[in-house]
Design goal:
Aspartate Aminotransferase, domain 2; 2 domains; 7-stranded mixed beta sheet; 11 helices; globular; binds pyridoxal-5'-phosphate; aminotransferase
């Protein structure tokens, strides 16, 4: 049987990884500034993370739902404390798409409305709001016809209000910082006015922090740079440092009831072991602080490159915008300099999403490579 060929792959076969580095089957070492679509938060094969997962698999392994799992409670408590959302409730699932799908469902149940507003170049996984960061019209079509999604330009609050006034919108979904699209971000004024407008028109505000969450932008959640409190926050990616896990943080104004949401794999013991380890490591190793320190250094070094037209994003979720497409440069970085980086829908943007454990000396390796390539 062949693989269903739906995305291109680089010709690299990783066999081992540690910290910010990945080894391939030819024993070449790569600096990982991409973390497999931003999932590596605490570094590859962190010893505490590995030990906890190993212990879990040797004892209870994958047992999933329908029985008491105190690890879910521990995870919710630690996540509440570290994120500042202690009074929200947590629903666990297994991916970013699933988290968003559940968030949209909750919004629809809660408001008895069905239309969704999302933003141009946003990306919310292959969900019924799987909209804008793709040019593929088959993905833009809503899965559930009743849950049509309207795409608006980012930062145009007048247009959002015009749609909300129609009183058929259950949710506005927005990323803290756009990932796949190319690192665009709502302004603080836009986020704050959006929060107010959603309250006024009884629409649920969903912050998709699947990529921008878990300390990546220098605060636990990217929306916390704008001093707002959304009704629902979705998480995944860095949450499990590579283990497939996702979650929905739900404000106390939503009432839980049996059967409202459900899952088979969500919150299983291994997923909890991975997620708890990540939170402990972020806290104990001050990784949010490290994110800010390294980000500052990285940006100050990048500012010396006149060929970088714009530095986008925050923390260690950074986009370098050039006035040319970066595809060839990414190939050079990976094959000639052994550095993983990411692309975006905006083909002129190079995405940098390293583990939050990264050090200045690793940044220097990238800076030197970029110097040689751009010269
Ligand atoms: N939301 C955002 C902001 C994402 O970047 C992604 C994936 O890239 C998703 C949702 C979907 O997550 P998953 O691929 O885990 O379904």
């Amino acid at each position: 049987m062949n693989l269903f060929n739906v995305y291109p792959l680089y010709d690299v076969t990783p066999v081992k990884a540690k910290g910010c580095f990945v080894w391939d089957d030819k024993d070449r070492i790569y600096l990982d500034l991409y973390g497999g679509h931003a999932v590596i938060s605490v570094g590859h094969s962190h010893p505490n993370y590995v030990a906890n997962l190993k212990h879990q698999i040797e004892t209870l392994g994958f047992y999933s739902n329908a029985v008491q799992n105190p690890m879910q409670v521990e995870l919710a408590e630690k996540l509440g404390k570290l994120s500042g959302y202690e009074n929200y409730e947590l629903f666990l699932c297994s991916s970013g798409a699933e988290a968003n799908e559940n968030a949209l469902k909750l919004a629809s149940f809660h408001t008895n409305k069905s239309r969704v507003i999302a933003f141009k170049n946003g990306f919310h996984g292959r969900t019924s709001a799987a909209v804008a960061a793709t040019d593929n019209p088959s993905i833009i079509a809503p899965i559930n016809k009743q849950q049509a999604t309207t795409i608006l330009p980012l930062n145009d609050i007048a247009l959002v209000k015009k749609e909300l006034k129609k009183d058929d919108v259950c949710a506005v979904i927005i990323e803290g910082i756009q990932g796949v699209g190319g690192l665009d971000e709502g302004t603080t004024t836009f986020f704050q006015e959006l929060e107010t407008a959603c309250k006024r028109y009884k629409t649920v505000l969903i912050l998709d922090e699947v990529q921008s969450g878990y300390g990546r932008t220098g605060k636990f959640f990217a929306h916390q740079h704008h001093n707002i409190k959304p009704d629902i926050i979705t998480i995944a990616k860095g949450m499990g440092n590579g283990f497939p896990v996702g979650g929905v943080l739900i404000s106390p104004k939503f009432d839980a009831s049996f059967g409202l949401l459900g899952t088979t794999f969500g919150g299983n013991h291994l997923a909890c072991a991975a997620s708890i380890s990540v939170l402990d490591i972020i806290k104990n190793e001050n990784l949010i602080e490290n994110t800010n320190t390294i980000s500052e250094y990285f940006i100050s070094e990048i500012e010396k490159f006149p060929k970088v037209k714009k530095i986008k994003g925050r923390g260690l979720m950074i986009g370098l915008e050039f006035d040319f497409e970066v595809g060839e440069m990414r190939k050079k970085l990976i094959y000639d300099y052994n550095i993983f980086t990411g692309g975006a829908k905006d083909k002129n943007v190079l995405r940098i999403l390293p583990p939050l454990t990264i050090k200045k000396e690793h940044i220097d390796v990238f800076i030197n490579a970029l110097k040689e390539i751009l010269d």
